[in-house]
């Protein structure tokens, strides 16, 4: 289950908290050591693994041909043959093996180095209340498609306009008028073309639920990445660096290797007093907005209120900070970590709300040297401090894999990482090269 939380004025509020943080750049030696360590972990330790098995109908026990079998959020996968058999060869195992087929409920299997032969049974899909009451179609997409795309892909992403959902006609929407939430589903994989990063994403969507009143998204998907030939693009390396550096994947990999500070991250314990007046106004505006979209009004045409004076009051309140008072204390992130040498995993124990600050150096991303900047290229050492609040929605610990993901996926992020959605998401088998 993936959860994102965000607030409309969060970045503005957080921007006042930390100024001019002095973060050391990692040296060439540390880059080399980190690269060698990661290569040994991701490559040498796992060498070549083979996962194989059968995919069968749970009721008839007959083989299911052309079922998709892949490691979740990777480029590694295959399809079953006419006998329902599959085989995947990979340099390493990833935690989730996703299996899906049209007309069946998708499922996920936790893989293990001690178990590489699987017999997987898929259940035929049954009609739900949503299936009975809602149909997919152009009219539905016209009403909810823009909002759905922005929430799923990330409306703040630089890559948003380079992404396109290829089969919108297969997506069904259901809006609950009483509780003000939107659900979406699809019987077929949702195909998303991302020309910025060079992938076509295949999404097996198990859940998509957007809560208007809390501005919160809960969704669960299996994602397979297919390379997309977009031709030569001299800016692509920079686009990929922008997507990776400061991301949740980058954060997790840095936690795993315990090089968070060297990777330009800093961590602070965070406390605050919320602006409840703004929270209440936001809920009213979101409720009104949801009902207007349900009536068929375009999102860009929706006002804050039908009453002019009320709308002006709402506008002023929504410009306020999300919090009235806040406090941060820099902490040593290693106090939250412990290493499981048997499973080769890092354990992340977190009971506080933490602020993670990433220092993004735009000239460094563009590989500009001092001489380049002196000659008028770049921004004169332009930097930005990207801030994220993180907490856990469960008492469980997060088990971090060297590939850059956590199990279970219970980390709630608001701010920069929370705003990074599928338009900026890279596969787990992505290898970063400075």
Task: Give structural notes.
- It contains eleven helices and 23 strands.
- The strands form five sheets. Strands 1, 9, 10, 11, 12, 13 and 14 form a seven-stranded antiparallel beta sheet that branches. A five-stranded antiparallel beta sheet has the order 16-15-19-20-23.
- By secondary structure, the chain is of the alpha+beta class.
- The protein has helices spanning 10-14, 28-44, 129-133, 138-154, 236-244, 248-257, 276-294, 308-318, 362-365, 370-374, 416-419; strands spanning 2-5, 49-57, 68-71, 77-79, 85-90, 96-100, 107-110, 117-122, 163-165, 171-176, 181-186, 190-194, 199-211, 216-227, 265-274, 323-330, 337-340, 345-348, 354-361, 383-392, 398-401, 405-407, 411-415.
- 32% of the residues are buried.
- The chain folds into three domains: 2-37 and 131-271 and 325-424, no CATH class; 48-122, Sandwich (Immunoglobulin-like), CATH 2.60.40.1120; 276-320.
Short description:
The protein is an alpha+beta fold and 434 residues long. Helix content is 24%, strand content 33%.
Which key terms come to mind for this protein?
23 strands, alpha+beta, 33% strand, 7-stranded antiparallel beta sheet, 434 residues, 24% helix, globular, 3 domains, single chain, Immunoglobulin-like, disordered N terminus, 5-stranded antiparallel beta sheet
């Amino acid at each position: 289950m993936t959860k994102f939380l965000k607030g409309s004025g969060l970045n503005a509020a957080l921007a006042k908290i930390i100024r001019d943080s002095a973060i050391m750049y990692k040296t060439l030696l540390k880059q080399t050591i980190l690269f060698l360590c990661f290569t040994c972990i991701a490559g040498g330790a796992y060498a070549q693994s083979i996962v194989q098995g059968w995919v069968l109908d749970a009721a008839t026990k007959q083989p299911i041909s052309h079922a998709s079998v892949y490691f979740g959020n990777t480029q590694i996968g295959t399809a079953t043959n006419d006998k329902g058999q599959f085989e995947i060869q990979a340099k390493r195992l990833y935690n989730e093996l996703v299996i899906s087929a049209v007309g069946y409920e998708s499922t996920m299997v936790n893989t293990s180095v001690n178990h590489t032969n699987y017999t997987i049974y898929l259940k035929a899909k049954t009609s739900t209340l949503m299936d009975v009451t809602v149909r997919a179609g152009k009219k539905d997409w016209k009403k909810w498609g823009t909002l759905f795309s922005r929430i799923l892909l990330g409306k703040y992403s630089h890559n948003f306009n380079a992404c396109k959902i290829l089969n919108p006609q297969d997506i069904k929407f259901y809006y609950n008028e009483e509780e003000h939430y939107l659900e979406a589903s699809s019987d077929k994989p949702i195909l998303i073309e991302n020309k910025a990063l060079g992938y076509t994403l295949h999404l097996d969507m198990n859940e998509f639920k957007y809560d208007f009143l809390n501005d919160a998204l809960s969704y669960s998907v299996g994602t397979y990445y297919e390379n997309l030939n977009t031709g030569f693009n001299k800016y692509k390396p920079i686009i990929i660096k922008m997507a990776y550096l400061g991301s949740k994947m980058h954060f997790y990999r840095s936690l795993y290797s315990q090089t968070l500070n060297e990777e330009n991250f800093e961590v602070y314990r965070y406390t605050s007093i919320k602006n409840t007046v703004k929270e209440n106004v936001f809920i009213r505006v979101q409720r009104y907005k949801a009902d207007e979209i349900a009536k068929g009004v375009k999102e860009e045409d929706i006002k804050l209120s039908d009453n002019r004076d009320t709308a002006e009051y709402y506008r002023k309140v929504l410009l306020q900070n999300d919090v009235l008072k806040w406090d941060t204390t820099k902490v040593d992130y290693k106090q939250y970590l412990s290493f499981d040498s048997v499973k080769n995993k890092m354990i992340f124990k977190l009971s506080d709300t933490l602020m993670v600050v990433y220092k993004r150096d735009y000239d460094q991303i563009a590989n500009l040297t001092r001489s380049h900047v002196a000659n008028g290229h770049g921004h004169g050492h332009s930097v930005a401090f990207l801030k994220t609040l993180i907490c856990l929605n469960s008492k469980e610990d997060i088990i971090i894999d060297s590939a850059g993901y956590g199990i279970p996926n219970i980390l709630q992020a608001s701010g920069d990482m929370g705003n990074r959605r599928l338009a900026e998401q890279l596969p787990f088998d992505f290898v970063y090269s400075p």
